[in-house]
Specification:
By secondary structure, the chain is mainly alpha-helical. Helix content is 49%, strand content 5%. Mean pLDDT is 90; it is low at 15-22.
Length: 349
């Protein structure tokens, strides 16, 4: 017997014990006990002193969630060990950059290990795992630091803005070959990941190279939209070069209602904005992000009841708030579903 089947048998007949019963994002009605407060703290932080359990129990569910969703934390820049000088102010070259990468890892690990009653570090890790990159491939400590700052400053903000920034982020441009994506030699790597892993997801395959939510034609068209972007080592930013950009119109498939993104000679920002607006106009995009957040914070399995009663209402909240994350998580963490006994303690480590 698996865990869920066992617990269902133990809680049979009690209120709010199945995913369906605890669904529909009905508000948690309490009482808010230490069991619930500890569950909330475990899911939203990487660790906490035992005294925090009683403190957050006394707050009640609304105030406890509001406190944990406060990400206004001032974290200083990483410094060179033994000094108070930021390593960003030190000369950088290929020989010493691995040392600076170690400084960043030590700096980030320090904040992960520092008890902090905020969801900030959990969300920074969430976005880093979502928009994955590797320092061994990027090989520039400045890029990796800036990417980390991008994720933490947009932790609970607007996903559309974050995806736009990631698309032009120097670490991502280098990691997924955006810097080599030109009008004479399009590179589809980032365009494919943007659709498959970062925004709308594949959906079931309906034909070779054709998925429910996008097609190979869409990958190719998106890659052409993104031509001309590259990382600038001097400024450690993304830059657009017009003569490397495909300025022709880009035709998308029926998955995107046969949309056409108008080509522009100097259309770096405007075409990127059109592409991302098109992707986020699709209903599936909001569902994709809500499923990802749900699996990270609640449970790895999404059954039909959870999809209908939790994911779809969360997606509606996300769309109603212009793809801002905070209202979605507030609704989830104050719901009866989040505190269902079948879900407490059910995360895979």
């Amino acid at each position: 017997m698996n865990r869920r089947s066992f617990l269902k048998a133990q809680f049979s007949g009690q209120a709010e014990t199945t995913q369906a019963a605890a669904g529909e994002l009905t508000k948690f009605s309490g009482p808010f006990t230490e069991l619930h407060a500890a569950h909330l703290l475990r899911r939203l932080t990487f660790g906490f002193p035992k005294a925090k359990i009683a403190e957050f129990t006394a707050l009640g569910v609304d105030a406890a969630v509001t406190t944990l969703l406060d990400t206004k934390t001032n974290i200083p820049k990483p410094t060179v060990p033994g000094t108070e000088i930021s390593w960003l102010e030190f000369p950088r070259d290929g020989a010493n950059d691995p040392m600076y990468i170690r400084y960043i890892k030590a700096w980030w690990t320090q904040w992960l290990a520092t008890p902090n009653p905020s969801i900030l570090e959990k969300m920074t890790v969430f976005w880093h795992n979502h928009f994955v990159s590797e320092s061994e491939v990027v090989y520039d400590s400045r890029y990796m630091y800036k990417q980390n700052v991008l994720f933490r400053t947009n932790a609970l903000g607007n996903i559309t803005s974050l995806v736009t920034a990631v698309t032009k982020d120097p670490a991502m441009l280098r990691y997924l070959n955006g810097s080599t994506n030109t009008n004479t030699k399009p590179n589809e790597n980032y365009a494919r990941e943007l659709l498959e892993l970062f925004t709308i997801g594949k959906g079931p395959e309906i034909a070779p190279g054709n998925y429910t939510h996008y097609s190979e034609q869409d990958v190719q068209a998106a890659a052409r939209v993104l031509t001309g972007w590259s990382d600038d080592e001097f400024s450690a930013t993304g830059k657009f070069t017009a003569n490397r950009h495909d300025s022709k119109d880009k035709q998308f498939s029926s998955c995107f209602h046969n949309a056409v993104i108008k080509g522009r000679t100097t259309g770096g920002d405007s075409e990127v904005q059109d592409l991302i607006a098109m992707i986020f106009s699709m209903e599936e995009t909001a569902l994709f992000f809500c499923r990802k957040l749900y699996r990270y914070f609640v449970h790895y399995e999404i059954d039909a009841a959870t999809e209908a009663l939790v994911i779809q209402p969360l997606a509606a909240i996300l769309r109603a708030n212009n793809f801002t994350v905070e209202p979605v998580l507030h609704a989830l963490f104050t719901s009866a579903h989040f505190y269902d006994p079948l879900l407490i303690g059910g995360m895979i480590k």
